[in-house]
Amino acid sequence: MNAHSNRALPQTILPGQPITALAPMQDVTTLPFMSVVSDIGSPDYFFTEYFRVHIQSRLEKHILEAITENGTGRPVFAQMIGEDLEHLKRTTLDLLQYEVAGIDLNMGCPAPTVYKKGCGGGLLRDPQKIDKVLGTLRDTIPGLFTVKMRIGFEDTKNFEQILKLINKHEVDLLSLHGRTVKEMYRSQVRYEHIKLAAETVKCPLLANGDVSSASHAFEILDYTGAAGVMIGRHAIRNPWIFRQIREMAMTGKTQPIKLTEVFQYVRNLYNTLAKPWTPEKAHVNKMKKFLNFIGQGVDPEGRFLYEARRAQNKLDLFAICERYMLSSPLEFFADEPYKGLFARPNCE
Ligand SMILES: Cc1cc2nc3c(=O)[nH]c(=O)nc-3n(C[C@H](O)[C@H](O)[C@H](O)COP(=O)(O)O)c2cc1C
Q1: Which residues have C-beta atoms less than 6 Å from ligand 1?
Q2: Domain match, 82 and 115 both
Q3: What is the pLDDT of residues 10-36, one digit of tens each?
Q4: Which domain holds residue 181?
Q5: Of 20, 25, 80, 238, which is best to mutate to test ligand 1, by the most ligand atoms within 8 angstroms of its C-beta?
Q6: Is residue 246 located within the same domain as residue 141?
Q7: Is 203 noted as a catalytic residue in this protein?
Q8: What does the pLDDT look like over 175-219, one tens digit per residue?
Q9: Among protein residues, the one whose CA lies closest to atom 5 of ligand 1
């Protein structure tokens, strides 16, 4: 595949349309989740959760299966997080043994345990280190080398210098989350920085951060000039979003999603994510993490969210889903999250 020699980006599902990508999300963008999303309407590209890179690291099996067992038919980029040149190189060579579309470097993770070691978002404080890391990876990867980053650590003073390094090391695709590391996940996304990056870098750029609907995606694309969008949390809530972006590109509008379809989505998630050895209660709790996002589009008062968060077992959970999704007077799922409804911060 591409990471082995070819430096052209994989074709989009609809040729000539903006690129769509499912954002990497730890414990979310697993193989089963990718398969559920793909059945609904695949993004053009997938990215794995990050492979940790350090002296003792080995490729984590459960992440690797999102590459080796992937049946979506779409390209999968393997993401790594780390700062040690030798081990980043070793991990890259290990990953290149597999059918990866490209190798992606995480320069944005805001978890203190990660950035304090100089990894993920921590790298953004040290452009000299970035220069070495990107240089080493570019020399090691014959095919597609991609980067996902934020606009800075606590401010944007290094931003333009880092964009120059993206060009210097001929990165093939940049995904940019328009917040600093310290801004985490909630502040206003700074699309003006994404626009500046799209104007500066030579490679295609994916705009990331709060892309909440197909129409919003096109507003962001128009404003920033980005080549595409990368979508995370809003794709958990609305996995139809990739299909809707294609519909909008073709027809200028999107088909509304019925709550009955949301019910099927929840049922598919429940069945596909279940592992035979996971106790029911633990699986129901895992589902709540997804329902926190999905619930933002079910009813405007957040009653579904309130009840779903309190479900004790599978029977409870599906009784609540049936009540709100199969017999609700509201026939349709909201296109944008209802105002005032939030997923819990510990889900991010
Ligand atoms: C639960 C969760 C896990 C995440 N894990 C990763 C990760 O492994 N690698 C990464 O680059 N970003 C990760 N992110 C960040 C997302 O990829 C994305 O940049 C961020 O959520 C903003 O996009 P959104 O508003 O579309 O969600 C994670 C985000 C969430 C919410």
Answers
A1: 23-26, 28, 49-50, 79, 106, 108-109, 148, 177, 185, 208-211, 231-234, 348
A2: yes
A3: 999 999 999 999 999 999 999 999 999
A4: 2-251
A5: 25
A6: yes
A7: no
A8: 999 999 999 999 999 999 999 999 999 999 999 999 999 999 999
A9: 25
103 shares a domain with 6: yes
Tally of domains within the chain: 2
- Domain end marker among 194, 222, 251: 251
Residues in CB range of 196: below 8 A, 6 or more apart: 159, 160, 163
Q: What is the pTM of this model?
A: 0.97
Q: Are 120 and 246 members of one domain?
A: yes
Query: Domain ends where: 235, 251, 267?
Result: 251
